[in-house]
Amino acid sequence: MTxxxxxxxRAGYGPRLILDDLDLAVPPGAITAIVGANACGKSTLxxxxxxxxxxxxxxxxxxxxxxxxxxxxxxxRNLGLLPQAPTAPDGITVADLVSHGRHPHQGMxxxxxxxxxxxxxxxxxxxxxxxxxxxxVDALSGGQRQRVWIAMAxxxxxxxxxxxxxxxxxxxxxxxxxxxxxxxxxxxxxTTIVMxxxxxxxxxxxxxxxxxxxxxxxxxVGAPDKVLTETMVAQVFGVRCRVMTDPTSGKPMxxxxxxxxxxxxxxxxEKTS
Length: 273
Known about the structure:
Number of strands: 12
Number of helices: 9
Structural class: alpha/beta
Shape: globular
Strand content: 25-35%
Mean pLDDT: 90
Largest sheet: 6 strands, mixed
Distance between the termini: 38 Å
Radius of gyration: 20 Å
Oligomer: single chain
Order of helices and strands: EEEHEEHEHHHEHEHEEHHEE
Low-confidence stretches: none
Strand order of the largest sheet: 6-7-8-3-9-10
């Protein structure tokens, strides 16, 4: 399996430092969700892992090699990225967009071949978008577009897939649809998935591994039942909550506490144990 690690990364934009001496080992063959408050460095970390942002110090290593030393096409054959709110060219069809995922496999002298056709067909099939192949991407619903973008990333046939907030702007039905699709992909192909999510309960339910960031550092990392605790939520998000077991998944579930609508049985003081 392909291994991806970040070692002592310090990164940001101009003079503004976002990540500060961050270390992370991505578990191969698992689903990892990165969570944290706004501006804590989640998207910056994903950009560093994808080589879209070069760290000021430290390095991202893919199978023992710095990603900075890997040729672009070779890196794209091993690591796929779905950025936040991607945009498609005007008038492009679903089939054409998904076919863009095969570009890393096209050399200077190579031509489109049967393997490319099979990869695109498989990506359309697994994302249930084959019936949309002839439609314009900009005519699709939000959930359909998100599945098409995932199909393009799948057509790359990478061992690792990075997704920056893949459920943003989707209603709950489409959020669950997209996350179920990613679990199917992980189980069928063994694809390592790293995704940034805002919803803690969805992250805990769908991920094998949680990474909680706080002020540019890894604050907590591990299995959801070890990371999603009342203390972590208070420290990372500044929110009082109760954490209990989800009766449907057996994973931890977080219920935030506000100042209103509390039952008499729930004390106002923060629970720390």
